[in-house]
């Protein structure tokens, strides 16, 4: 069981782990031991997350979200399989924690009268500068 916060947890049946050989340096260990971990979370089928949280999680996950509605976290940071498992679980928990926070609603505001006037005077000045850039005509 993966605890996200005091009230929310993810059941074991929603998580599946697979291990593979890691890339990069590691000596002989890299060719023998499967230290990289791929943590798969069935987010779309999870009864613990609300639809709004699932939508935010999908946006946060980006390319890590599959067409089946699963979230895949791959970690091959360390040479230890156990440490990679911990890192993957913590990254998943952090993603879910950030998806739990609902964004603040933006309150539309009107520009002040002074800022409107400053904008118009700046536009008028700029127009005058541009109008003076024209070709100089022959005065006959």
Helices and strands, with pairings:
Blueprint: E1 2-3, E2 9-10, E3 15-20, H1 29-32, E4 36-41, H2 51-61, E5 71-75, H3 81-100, H4 113-131
Antiparallel strand pairs: 1-2, 3-4, 4-5
Q: What assembly state would you assign to the polypeptide chains in this entry?
A: single chain
The helix content is 25-40%
Helix segment count? 4
Biggest sheet statistics: 3 strands, antiparallel
Tell me, rounded to a whole number, the average pLDDT.
88
Instruction: Give the overall silhouette.
Output: elongated
Q: Structural class given helices, strands, pairing? A: alpha+beta
Please give the alpha-carbon distance between the first and last residues.
92 Å
Strand content: 15-25%
Write out the strand line-up for the largest beta sheet, numbering strands in chain order.
3-4-5
* Rg from Cα: 28 Å
List keywords for this structure.
140 residues; alpha+beta; three-stranded antiparallel beta sheet; two-stranded antiparallel ribbon
Describe what this molecule looks like in 3D.
The protein is of the alpha+beta class. 39% of the residues lie in helices and 15% in strands. The protein has four helices and five strands. The chain has helices at residues 29-32, 51-61, 81-100, 113-131; strands at residues 2-3, 9-10, 15-20, 36-41, 71-75. A three-stranded antiparallel beta sheet has the order 3-4-5, with helices on one face. It is elongated. It starts with a strand and ends in a 9-residue tail after the last helix. The model has no long low-confidence stretch (mean pLDDT 88).
